[in-house]
Design a protein that fits this description.
By secondary structure, the chain is an alpha+beta fold. It is built from three helices and eight strands; from the N terminus they run ααββββαββββ. The strands form two sheets. A six-stranded antiparallel sheet has the order 1-2-6-7-8-5. Strands 3-4 form a two-stranded antiparallel ribbon. α1 crosses α3. The chain is globular and about 45 Å long. The two termini are about 15 Å apart.
């Protein structure tokens, strides 16, 4: 994992390629050796009945964190795409900023495998996910 883009560069790539990331004000807070952390600021639009953060919002955070980790480590190649995601809801997610931490488990030539935890800032994780990204040819 010798390539490492800055958090600012990764955020710029994501916002340029995914207009919804701009609308959700997604922030890439950190990238590091095999990982990335993103934050989605709280908005009442992310709530479901019962005043809890919706599944689609949590899924978006998971996918975005995975994408940020992959981009940070493969360079400016925005054509990396989600191959699969498997998520486990652990508890309801409180209405706060959403933070997702992605860790690369394996970064191969054509596939990256990741693990992600996501939840309300300061709370225990609400979701644990695993997934993979198909990588563009080098």
């Amino acid at each position: 994992m010798d390539k490492l883009l800055s958090a600012e560069r990764v955020e710029a790539i994501i916002r340029a390629g995914l207009p919804e990331a701009e609308a959700m004000q997604v922030r890439v807070e950190a990238v590091g050796d095999g990982r990335a952390t993103i934050r989605i600021p709280f908005s009442p639009r992310m709530l479901r009945p019962g005043e809890r953060v919706s599944g689609p919002t949590l899924f978006a955070a998971i996918d975005t964190a995975m994408y940020a980790a992959v981009l940070a480590h493969i360079g400016d190649q925005p054509m990396a795409v989600t191959s699969d995601i498997n998520l486990h809801f652990l508890r309801a997610c409180a209405p706060h900023d959403i933070v997702a931490d992605a860790h690369i488990l394996k970064l191969g030539k054509r596939l990256a495998v990741l693990s992600v935890t996501v939840g309300a800032a300061g709370d225990p994780p609400s979701v644990h996910a695993t997934g993979s990204y198909s990588l563009p040819p080098a």
